[in-house]
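Page 42, continued from yesterday. The earlier attempt failed because a stray header line got pasted into the input along with the sequence. Redoing it now with the clean sequence only.
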Amino acid sequence: MGSEDIHLRSLRDVQQYSDPDDEALKLGISSANWSLFGVVWDSSQVLARLMVDYEIDGKRILELGCGIALSSLLLNRRGGDITATDYHPEAESYLQKNTRLNQDPDIPFFRADWDDAESRNGGFDLIVGSDVLYEQTKLSPLAGFIEGHARPTCEVVIVDPGRKLQGQFSRLMAQRGYSREEQKPEDVSGLKRTFSGSILTYRR
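This time it went through. Structure tokens are written below.
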């Protein structure tokens, strides 16, 4: 990834499933969705490539729905003050394994439920995420979660593969004082398929 050599332990494919104690099921994660956290999606690669030379000095950074946490691992390698979050019960375990695999410092993690209006884990200057605008009912909770974790001056960067919910989410962010900028990624080489999405940047 750029000049950084990041190693990943991930699931082989989306057919894998292991929830012997029904931990994920109790959280509302079905067998059909269980494996989605554990593979590297094109959107996450686009975000990680953007973070290769992104300005991070002096910023507290939060990754939303990190999944296999490629961007968190890259930012950690760069010396960034990065915290990772995800709802999946296996995400933290894979993050720890991959951090050790790359022989890098531990990455702080907390399990994030966007519907938990009381969730507060400090203020962040930069909040990033990939393919997090996937369900209409989650847009308002996500905007609220961001609000609860953002500093008064904050930048939010989201890579969206084109799920058609950008407009609704942008209106929710505008209500919270954010301006929006949209651009196409410059480097989409090596992705599994043609990337028709965009990079959304919100600033306040």
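Notes: Residues 116 and 156 are 20 Å apart (CA to CA).
Reminder to self: strip header lines before submitting.
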